[in-house]
Amino acid sequence: MIIDINFIGLIIASIMASAVPLILASCGELITERSGVLNLGVEGMMIIGAISGFALMTVTGSLIIAIFGAMLAGVLISTIFAFLTQTLITNHVATGLALTIFGIGISAMIGKNFVGIPGKEFPVLFENLKDTIPLIGPILFGHSIVFYFAFALPFMTNYFLKKTKIGLIVRAVGDSPVSASNQGIKVRLVRYLCILYGGAMSGLAGAYLSMIYTPQWIENMTGGRGWIALALVVFSTWNPIKILIGAMIFGGLTIIQFHMQAIGVRIPVQFLTALPYIVTIIVLVVISRDSRKIRLSTPSSLGKSFHKDN
Amino acid sequence: MNTNLKISNVTKIYPGCVANDNVSLEFNSGKIYALLGENGAGKSTLVKILSGVIIPDEGEIYLNKNNLKLNSPLDAKKNDIGMVFQHFNLFETLSVFENLIIDSDEQRESLREKIDLIMKKYNFSIDLDIPVLNLSAGQKQKVEIIRCLIRNPKVLIMDEPTSVLTEQETSELFLSLKKFSEEGILIIYITHKLKEVMQLCDEVAVMRRGKLVSVSEIKNENIESLANKMVGQNLKTIKKKKAKTSSDQLIKITNLNFTSEDPFETNLMDINFSVNRGECLGIAGISGNGQSELFQVLSGEIISEKNSIEFNNSYIGNLNPQERREYLMAFSPEDRLEQAAIPQMKIFENVALNNFKSSNFFNNGLINENKIKEHSKKIISDFNVNTDNIELKSQFLSGGNLQKLIIGRELITSPDLLICFNPTWGLDVGAINYIHETLIKINEQNKSIILISTDTDELLKLSDKISVIHKGKLSKIMNAEEVTSEKLGILMGGAN
Ligand SMILES: Nc1ncnc2c1ncn2[C@@H]1O[C@H](COP(=O)(O)OP(=O)(O)OP(=O)(O)O)[C@@H](O)[C@H]1O
Ligand SMILES: [Mg+2]
């Protein structure tokens, strides 16, 4: 069997494309969690982003408005979460789950009018360079701006957390909100901003799905990617670079599934769908064998509410 | 330059408690001030007001005649007031340097230089690039102090800095504080250790139930006079009567070993000892030499070989704490709020946690709340816990009252053996006296105690036999009469 080298390039490129929404949403959620907030509403924020992006594109015709509108929609819905968990001190887990249910419901309602409408073509960059280098060409060139942004994001997130003052403050708040508050850091403000940022990134991830990856609106089109993004954050042990690796593995699973079926290898779809979660659990088991390591990598206050006076 | 800090008519009221009641005080640089008072007297509240963490209901603060508006910790920092809190305020998973740079406006390089200078000047040596959780308590404290010094403070407040320090670390701290004072930093020092006050301070202010009750110069005071001022009455000095030696063996530890996977824990090597009925065995040592591991092995938090622990003629090394309780053992761990009690739970719920089979707290899996509450009330009155509300969350009890509750909870089952680990750290003299009296009474009833403590005076006061733990090994067991604190000190340092 002769395998065309460009075909391998294409497969890798398609794996990367399916990793994009995972990277975006995970990197956003990673910042949220690093500040000590557990937002389980990623799936909900993503689907709101997806319908907002698609709807704005159809109505206004402007891709830029649609992309930024989707991010804004993510910000708005995460504001609800932030207000509930930070101002009214509700439980993070329950509120996050409610957010997902809310997001799925409201997107289906708005989306009714947009079912079956064809999407618009999203411009790609460096299209002409695609065929110049074998294997590498299809991998590197001919993608949307969001694609390039997604692959730069883990590195930027890493730089932000490790090298900038604000990144340090985010980590400090996640480590000990009480100490941070005693040092004069405005814990609630920091957490608000981290939640809204996570919302924006989830919104963008959703818009990527409905505007670029499969340009159309289908009800429930995020199909559990929000949950995988959440699992990815844990899988990565809150390290943005590992998110990149994890997203490639998890994204690759879906693509490989197609190709395996084509060659005649049959693995139940359900197993492949479950695989990301199984892998995450295995990773968790492995890292939790070393209690110091898990202590150092997990934001200590994750999911715990912070009241000013105690 | 002289610094003058004035607190004027400060009041802070919490629901059900006046933490600071119209307090006025004045401080001048060049002196070290002690702030004394029982648990819950309002010392921490007062200094938290000075550092902007708590906003008072009434009253003013003046620094060099300027009225300060301290609405946030940042305001205090801007006005050169630095504070080391009672509970560490560090970010454990961040590196030392990250902990220091977080509230500094300086560039990395210049800050590093500055920190190096400070460390050289005061003889600190700390690796700036390891996470704080790898540091010892003394080192963490130094990080907190460096954090204050970076800002060239005019005022430095220390809230019970030595309750977690070894004696060596304490004397190092005192040297630094004296240096700071000579350099013109005004120092306010909170402690329960009256010896330290006599050693270190120039003036002393005493608070009781939120009120300031006395301000005086140290040269006019002694340990007894200070203790009496704090408690408001004459403290009786307690002394243990020499126990009639019994030869009735209660617990025997043979060739007990523990090897930890965590490189920051201490391994226990070949522990052998026995305790007779009616006896108190004291285990001395500088903290971090295996005391907490030893406590966990004895309590069953860490399970060992079955035959390594013989209690009342049964082998129990492989039993968990719950099962050991059934054999009439009781435990009082070091960390009151994390290990001994659950802070968010109510007093009576915490009492029920000592789920002793014969206590009948649970009937067929259901909670017998009346029984538990009745029992809790008995503990509160028998052990002099200063509250009458058993529905109160345990976190709002002062350290001393929580400790009395825990000891009370453990003793109400009339155990044959009580194992305690630093039972009086952070407690005021009155509460310490009470706990000591209780422990002596236990021995008088022919029950036994294993007292693991870093406080040498306490050990000499209460023990019949003493051993020293060093790097996970026990010294030979000595009769308490033959031991002096000098001798203990030498053994604690690792000499033979
Ligand atoms: N957030 C709060 N809510 C209600 N009561 C409080 C609160 N904080 C402190 N208190 C009460 O205020 C009083 C003074 O507390 P504070 O911490 O100042 O005592 P302290 O003198 O520092 O005692 P210790 O020696 O045990 O540290 C105590 O009775 C305490 O129970
Ligand atoms: Mg205090």
Architecture overview:
The complex is a heterodimer of chains A (310) and B (496). Helix content of chain A is 72%, strand content 0%. Chain A is mostly helical and 310 residues long. Chain A has one domain: ABC transporter involved in vitamin B12 uptake, BtuC (Orthogonal Bundle), CATH 1.10.3470. The radius of gyration of chain A is 20 Å and the shape is globular. The mean pLDDT of chain A is 90. Helix content of chain B is 33%, strand content 25%. Chain B starts with a strand and ends with a helix. Chain B contains 17 helices and 23 strands. In chain B, a hairpin with a 2-residue loop joins strand 17 (362-363) and strand 18 (366-367). The model of chain B has no long low-confidence stretch (mean pLDDT 89). Chain B has two domains: 4-221, Rossmann fold (3-Layer(aba) Sandwich), CATH 3.40.50.300; 249-492, P-loop containing nucleotide triphosphate hydrolases (Rossmann fold, 3-Layer(aba) Sandwich), CATH 3.40.50.300. With 496 residues, chain B is α/β, with parallel strands linked by helices. The chains are: A mainly alpha (310), B alpha/beta (496). The A-B interface holds A 165, 168-169, 171-172, 175-176, 178-185, 291-292, 295-296, 300, 310 and B 52-53, 72-74, 77, 85, 88-94, 98, 101-103, 131, 133, 262, 264, 395.
How helical, in percent, are the residues of chain B?
A: 25-40%
**Total discrete domains of chain A:** 1
CATH topology (fold) name of the largest domain in chain B = Rossmann fold
Bound chemical compounds: adenosine-5'-triphosphate, magnesium ion
How much is the average pLDDT of chain A? 90
Topology, number of strands of chain A: 0
Identify the overall geometry of chain A: globular
How many DSSP helices of chain A?
Answer: 13
Low-confidence stretches of chain B: none
Instruction: Identify low-pLDDT runs of chain A.
Output: none
Instruction: Indicate the structural class of chain B.
Output: alpha/beta
* Total beta strand runs of chain B: 23
